[in-house]
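A protein record pairs a chain with a discrete description of its three-dimensional fold. The following entry can be read in just this way:
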Amino acid sequence: MRITSSRAVRGTAVLGVAALALTACGPDTTGGDGEAEVEGVDWSEVEPAEEITFWTNHPGGSADVEEELIAGFTEETGIEVNVVTSGANYEETSQRFQTAQGTGDVGDVVVLSDATWFPNHLNDALVPVDELLEAAEVDTDGYVDALYEDYLYEGSHYGVPYARSTPLFYYNADHYEEAGLSEDDVPETWEDVAEVSEQLMDAEVASSAFAFPPQDQYPAWTMANLVWGYGGGWSEEWDFSSVSSPETVEAIEFAQAAAEDWASVASGDQADDFASGAASQVVASTGSLNGILDTADFEVGTAFLPGGPAGDGETPTGGAGLMIASDSEPERQLAAAMFVGHMTNPESTASFSEATGYVPVQKDADMSAVYEESPQFETAVEQLERARVQDYARVFLPGGDLALAQTLQRILTQDSTSPMSWSPWRRSSRSSTTATWRRSWRTDPPRSGWLGWDRTFVRAQEVPTMAEKTPHQNTTFTTEGGTAHGYLALPPSGTGPAVIVIQEWWGLTDHIKDVTDRLAADGFVALAPDLYGGWITHDGDEAGEMMSKLPAEEGAKQLAGATDFLLEHEAVTSKTVGAIGFCMGGGFVLALAAQQGAKISAAVPFYGVGQAVPDTYTGVKAAVQGHYAEQDAMYPVEEAKAQEEQIRSESGAEVEFHYYDAGHAFHNDENLIGTYDAEKAKLAWGRAVDFLKARVV
């Protein structure tokens, strides 16, 4: 169906050779006891609670309409709903929900996005809702199938759709007319998009005929339609080989060629480029429709997403749903099920959609009033018949969406004059018992498990897949140009001074998690950023390669984001942050102190080495306490003593280094080189904790 009603500049850079391979493994999804507990409840014997708590970030500016819908629910049922503004966005809400587990202060119903609900499920924070909804007499058959199935995993649903959106094809009807095009010329396939775009460029009606999304605007979401149209995909459940299939390659090559000819990559939100007239066509969220209509001074047209050789314009789903906490008592869970049923019934979803621009989640929602005011919105609703559940690689795999986005950005924008193949994760075959992974950026020819391509040559090779233990991630925070993950531990009191824990070259292992938990037990709000995106190794050669492939500037971005995250966290009582790190992490501790200045008040490196060790310490304002080994073959004690003097002379800060008759990694009780020294570790740990307590205020 078609209804008529950027600052970006056309890309001219030659793209050279680019490659995309995403090999990863599904987490251990066996879960804990949460599901078993719910399945043991006889809901016919449970009476709904008289009061529940609803955690929401009010998606799409929905505070007013939520208040109206909640008032109707209370009037109908007598159940009071306490509304908690849980964050400014989906990520903040998820962070707060994750860190509240086990505290007794967690929302009964929580708004979680397509990319944040699954980690909460893995942490046993969410209850399966199938039996609950049946007990609450909620009819789930009316939900738009693809929207409800987004929350289906291993036979159970973990939420219901609420604030949902899909991408939509927008076109500038005025530009079409100037180029001699009509409504009949609106593209139905991506080949049509190319043909129409050539005419738009020939007519010189805009800087770009089409704008692709940049990295921070979720390109793996909107471009899934293109990839699916060619028969490819980011994954097939936990099988990630499809990301390197010939079909996916063909789709990405189409985008590459477009970016060299008639398309651009937006510098910000691609919807802004379209609304300003800089781009004649764009694929953007249905949630952008109201903003586009308010801003554009031209006639805005909307159409279904284009199809491809293997598909008729399947549309990926997005947005957020309503989930029920596993920590809640059965009485509150039953009342919560009644509540989510009310908030998403046909009448409620119609009101919510009209107020926010999100698509209705019920097939029978009456949207006629909206269509009268904004006929373009009818396209979005009718397109729901083509909705398709998203690929696991984007929404379930930790860091998967970011890895895809970064790679797509490179492919569409990066000049390249030498062969290059890139893989966010490649499995090593060194260990048969432990999944070991390496992060790799290479300039040599593609190898097994990699995909390389240029404009004329494509070679796809087999990509191995396997299952992997769930990484230690329970929180997400923003960084410069993206997001990162980590493990956050709170003290028994719920509040305390902030400390960052920086991993060794092995990754965010059980040992680093234990260090973080020990600091929390000592009263700190402790965060261990996951610098490898969830992957660990137990092989020294691989660890060295993983460390060498983590650019110091990338690690610095994540740690800067972690610092700001802690300083803004409601549980943090200090105005500064402490940092403690080991091996590679010790080097990053010194780099963080040098870069963040007065934000870091205490820096505690344990045998700090690696790519992040600064050349100069003039920016250090923190007090520094170092712990180094006299028998350290990786970082000789003479070099450690020279580093101590350099820090003291260049920074003017308080500096104390301690040296131990031990080997490298003497503090790590899980280290594989046999140098753990329990006595020295206890002594160093006591000194470090006392140092942090005295200086992080």
